[in-house]
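Hi support team,

I'm opening this ticket because the web form for multi-chain structure prediction keeps timing out on my end. I have pasted the exact lines I submitted so you can reproduce it. The total is 622 residues across two entries, so I didn't expect it to be a heavy job. Is there a limit I'm missing, or should I split the entries? Thanks in advance, R.K.
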Amino acid sequence: MTTTDSAPSATGGAEQELQERFDTSIAKDRRIEPRDWMPDGYRKTLVRQIAQHAHSEIIGMQPEGEWITRAPSLRRKAILFAKVQDEAGHGLYLYSAAETLGAERTELTERLISGRQKYSSIFNYPTPTFADVGVIGWFVDGAAICNQVPLCRSSYGPYARAMVRICKEESFHQRQGYELLMTMVRGTEEQRRMVQDAVDRWWWPSLMMFGPPDGDSPNSAASMAWKIKRHTNDELRSRFVDMTVPQAERLGVTLPDPELRWNPERGRHDFGTPDWSELQRVIKGDGPCNAERMTRRRTAHEDGAWVREAATAHAAKQAARGPRGSHTEEGTAA
Amino acid sequence: MADTDDDHIYLSLAEEHGDGDARWAFGTGFEDPLHGVETAVPAGVDAVRLAADCAALADDALVGAQRLAEWCTRAPELEEEVALANIGLDLLGQARLLYTRAGQADGSGRGEDAFAYFRDADAFRSLRLAELPNGDFAFSVVRLLWLSSWRLALFTRLAHGAPDPVLAAVAEKGVKELTYHRQYAADWVVRLGDGTEESHRRTVAALAGIAPYTGELFTGAPVCGVAPADLRDEVTGVVRQVCAAAGLELPEAEPLPGSGRDGDRTDHLAPLLAELQSVARAHPEGVW
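Hello R.K., no limit was hit. The queue was backed up. Here is the completed structure from your submission:
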């Protein structure tokens, strides 16, 4: 999965000096900016991580986007529509952050739809009821916040700044999701059952969002050394559990783990082990919705090709016609 | 920085948030456009007629928003995902305010959801142009150009002349939104008309397919004092100007008989509503 060496090295005197300056910046918690020298491994690791993050935002629009047309009140419809729109916006900032490292959005999109780059496996699970919208907000956005808040201090400036904005919006989404569930559990018995059922289905996949256990996480060491990443997978997972347990109690739902209990000696919760073989299956493409998600993205991209070609052709004609063209409309869609 | 800072956002989740939901539920509007506006129906205004007009304008907006929501995750580019959702959210916001006004004016006290979820297709008074399926991107932007140009012309007049202050305030807010919608649609019609042979061909087909449905925009009884026929020159002029910039001709067509405003429907509204209303009707006692 990774293209980096754990000990990035440079050759030659000038490059050695650059490497030293880079290492000092990292050690002193200074931000690396697009024009600064950086080791190839650092650049590649970042492009891969940011692109996969961007892809996750875009694919992540699908499971909840399914419910915009069916949301059961106009207020919920507006909230959900705005949330899914925010995810498209997050995808845009993240692709832009990747572009500061020399990647191109079109190329990254090709890598996604050809299956060469991954997105978060959590989005390969189905959303059979409207309660899923709430539980995704609570668990999936919540887990994303645990993962991403530390990235606001990532060593790479454009990524860190994008994450600040994204995290603010994610926390908003999480509150909205939790508030939906709180409203639903105060409703009918059937609504309470829907909420518990969604909690049962999403709990374990959400714990897997933090990635494999530390011992099996090949990319973590280099990313930690470079301060691209700040905490290990297991640490973040454990923190998520600790934060979620009291929220579940307040909501009156049961988290589906018989081993889950407070450990006063550690001052943390003990909890069961996710089925890592399931994660591997989903990553390899055998999750419940992998094919559907990829097909939707690929189809949208292919169906839109003539539109993008038209925009490019029009822009070229406008440029050829000079500044007194019949219409100017740069950037209206941005 | 300590981890506790990182945790702060998360830990406050289960606390009650005192702020009103309109403030934090983005898309429902951070500003109340009706703040300080008198909500009693003024003397001399036909409340039943006002309610019917508000509901019909809300129906257009709701149906339009639903069609735009269908584009979600299917748009040709991410910028278009964001823009189409923006426009859909604006229309949804207009629908909510107008339904609420309709429920106040007709004395029923019905809320927005009663109008949106618990009326059948035969009670809707939306324009048939809004109901048509999305078609390709050219069809959707040509339709948006017509509908937003028409609605902007109407709302501009209502903002200044509606005898009901609530409708005038809703229209005033809508004018800003619709100005953007029309610009967005116009820009795309120009790009597509001028772009490639294929995009030109698709846009010509969209204009032709939509032409018979534009007749009903300009017929029927006045809407809060604005006669639809009085909008024709302005709206047609805008669309013709955009077409000229795009190297397209605005086709003439025999208008479809009847009008959505009188309850004439296409076959497309009932399935659209079946989807929109499915969850709400499956849980009539549910709270959301």
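A quick check on our side: Chain B touches chain A through 73 residues (CB under 8 Å). Let us know if the file doesn't open in your viewer.
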